[in-house]
């Protein structure tokens, strides 16, 4: 059965809804590059990446960590990264004892070093757990990076966040799609800086 003109128009509209948010992130290329350079400098100094998020971003955090630890592109350097969302016993235990909002902050206090990178992912920019995790990381001296959706919310506005990338859409599905693209770009540019002689001299923190 051939698709109707109406259905074809609906398909185009679905693609069109994704254009503006993607173009918005692309327009922030300087900010993305700055975040990648800062991340590469931390890796260069021996730091690791610590990733976290609640709900849908839980799986994004796991995806990001495995991308860095086990690159799918042959010959690329593996980099240390962990997700704070994979250990169900720790997550539920901390949530029961001190509250859901402290799940990531608690782990960061016990697992992180000042040279590390904290990457928090929040689909609407309002996740209290992500905000608390980033604030704790900042207080400890970690580099803090946030991927947010919507208008960025309280996470993007927090002074504890060094670098913010926002997928400006109210549709969580579109935010998810853009975040996947963004963290693939982060991975790729981090490697560009690490592989380019002199790119990290002088080092940034």
What does this protein look like?
This protein is 56% helix and 13% strand. It is built from 8 helices and 5 strands. It has a 5-stranded parallel β-sheet, with helices on both faces. β4, α7 and β5 (163-167) form a beta-alpha-beta unit. The termini are far apart.
Question: Helices, strands, pairings?
Answer:
Blueprint: H1 5-27, H2 29-44, E1 49-53, H3 57-69, E2 81-83, H4 88-98, H5 103-111, E3 117-122, H6 128-140, E4 143-149, H7 153-157, E5 163-167, H8 172-195
Parallel strand pairs: 1-2, 1-3, 3-4, 4-5
Pfam families: SIS_2 (PF13580)
Organism: Gandjariella thermophila
Keywords: Isomerase
Mean pLDDT, to the nearest integer, reads: 93
How far apart are the termini? Answer: 59 Å
CATH superfamily: Glucose-6-phosphate isomerase like protein, domain 1
What is the C-level CATH assignment?
Alpha Beta
Task: Give the oligomeric state of the chains in this entry, treating copies of one chain as homo and distinct chains as hetero.
Answer: single chain
Query: What is the fold-level CATH name, i.e. the topology?
Result: Rossmann fold
Sum up the overall morphology in one term: globular
Relevant terms:
205 residues; alpha/beta; Rossmann fold; 8 helices; SIS_dom_sf; isomerase
Summarize this structure briefly.
With 205 residues, the protein is α/β, with parallel strands linked by helices. The chain has helices spanning 5-27, 29-44, 57-69, 88-98, 103-111, 128-140, 153-157, 172-195; strands at residues 49-53, 81-83, 117-122, 143-149, 163-167. It has a single domain, classed as 3-Layer(aba) Sandwich (Rossmann fold).
